Amino acid sequence: MKWVAQLPYYKIQREIKDGEQRSITCNRLMYLYKDRVVTRHREFPIKDILDMSYRSMGGSEGMFYLYTSKGVYTYLVECDPESFIHTFKEQQMNKIERTGRP
Q1: Residue 64 belongs to a domain with what CATH number?
Q2: Contact 51, 71 (CB under 8 A)
Q3: Which domain holds residue 69?
């Protein structure tokens, strides 16, 4: 199945080498499918996703929040995820219209 939206995010990994701490930025992608959201290390079934939101941290960076029935997951983003969130919410509305249930 092809994804319907994608969102670039990044993770900062810290490592100590030769007594020095270094930060390494790892760029990743999150994919929204009709039935799930997939990140590099996790997969969330759509039925478990309650909501999504975004909070800017100044400039173009911010925190993307994925609210699930198992907790809240946060992801660092460098762009506004409005399109990703809109696509998710549009899918949810279409499902409710078709089935009468969220």
Answers
A1: 2.30.29.30
A2: no
A3: 5-99
